[in-house]
Inverse folding.
């Protein structure tokens, strides 16, 4: 799973800020940079020079650079497939074709030496088929969803899934955007998410959703200059292990803490109502008394006590509400903001818990 950041030339950020941000992102494990050459609010007199400086610095750091472009921007640059060398020299690996291009124009760019990034949010089967029939070199394809600055315009999860299915059927990798909650881009400052459901939520939780959902190959923070904590937290998200924040129940024993904070694997035959740890019972090296008997609500983490005999030590993460059981201790609960992530824990997948930030 790749992770990326965004920077936008001509939007009033100093080169010093941009270069510092690149360095922080690189240190946090990010490998991609997205930029744009056609933001309406950008200063046209500054875009090209800033773009060259940013792209050159990112390339030197080993980041893969993709730039969004429109027909209008191509006209301003007097560029076409025959002049792709300009973009290659600037450090670009791919151009993202936003809107206004014909199938033939996009196909021609696949033979230019640059990668071609398709708009995953708007592309449907007929449009993609037309590009392929126009003679596109399909091995040059990648795809990236839009971001949506205006509230209430981000796409639905249903459409997101539908579009991703199209690209997966052709083995084309897809990227998508998440917003920065701490430093949203102007002029609207409402975040730059792909999914409307991510607008206004914590950046790391949006990243966890897309990473663990498994539909995309890259997650990009759409807003520039995300906070240091956002970079660190997103950079630390592991693709193959769901890590959820929990609030602890009072009075936990040392054994309950040991079981709770171990690394777990969801059973391949996980139950309908709960994620079940395949390995937690082996950690119950001593008797586990009853305690913390309360209703088992969705998001609660429970450990079976000695009343469940050979099940003692079994850890479950509840997908739905269940009644209290004197044989089951409620030891923690996933924080409200992350409970929607529980259903992303698939059979055989690793998971763990950590105290809430």
């Amino acid at each position: 799973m790749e992770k990326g950041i965004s920077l936008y030339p001509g939007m009033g950020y100093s080169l010093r800020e941009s270069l510092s941000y690149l360095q922080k992102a690189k240190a946090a494990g990010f490998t991609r940079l997205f930029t744009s050459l056609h933001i309406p609010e950008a200063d046209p007199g500054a875009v090209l020079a800033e773009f060259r400086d940013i792209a050159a610095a990112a390339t030197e750091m080993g980041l893969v650079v993709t730039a969004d472009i429109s027909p209008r921007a191509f006209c301003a640059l007097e560029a076409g497939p025959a002049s792709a060398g300009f973009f290659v020299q600037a450090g670009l690996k791919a151009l993202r074709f936003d809107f206004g291009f014909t199938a033939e124009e996009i196909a021609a760019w696949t033979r230019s030496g640059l990668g071609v990034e398709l708009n995953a949010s708007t592309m449907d089967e007929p449009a993609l088929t037309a590009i392929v029939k126009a003679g596109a070199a399909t091995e040059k394809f990648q795809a990236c969803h839009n971001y949506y600055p205006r509230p209430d315009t981000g796409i639905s999860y249903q459409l997101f899934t539908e579009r991703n299915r199209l690209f997966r059927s052709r083995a084309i990798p897809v990227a998508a955007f998440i917003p920065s909650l701490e430093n949203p881009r102007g002029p609207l400052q409402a975040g730059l998410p792909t999914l409307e459901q991510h607008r206004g939520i914590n950046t790391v939780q949006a990243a966890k959703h897309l990473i663990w959902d498994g539909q995309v190959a890259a997650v990009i923070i759409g807003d520039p200059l995300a906070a240091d904590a956002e970079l660190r937290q997103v950079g630390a998200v592991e693709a193959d292990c769901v890590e959820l924040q929990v609030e602890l129940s009072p009075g936990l024993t040392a054994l309950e803490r040991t079981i709770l904070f171990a690394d777990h694997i969801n059973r391949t035959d996980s139950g309908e109502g709960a994620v079940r740890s395949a390995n937690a019972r082996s950690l119950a090296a001593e008797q586990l008394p009853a305690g913390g008997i309360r209703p088992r609500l969705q998001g609660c983490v429970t450990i079976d006590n000695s009343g469940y005999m050979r099940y003692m030590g079994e850890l479950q993460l509840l997908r739905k509400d269940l009644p209290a059981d004197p044989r089951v201790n409620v030891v923690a609960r996933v924080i409200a903001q992350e409970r929607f992530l529980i259903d992303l824990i698939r059979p055989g997948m690793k998971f763990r818990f950590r105290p809430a930030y």
Remarks:
- The chain has a mean pLDDT of 94.
- The longest helix spans residues 44-60.
- The two ends are 24 Å apart (CA to CA).
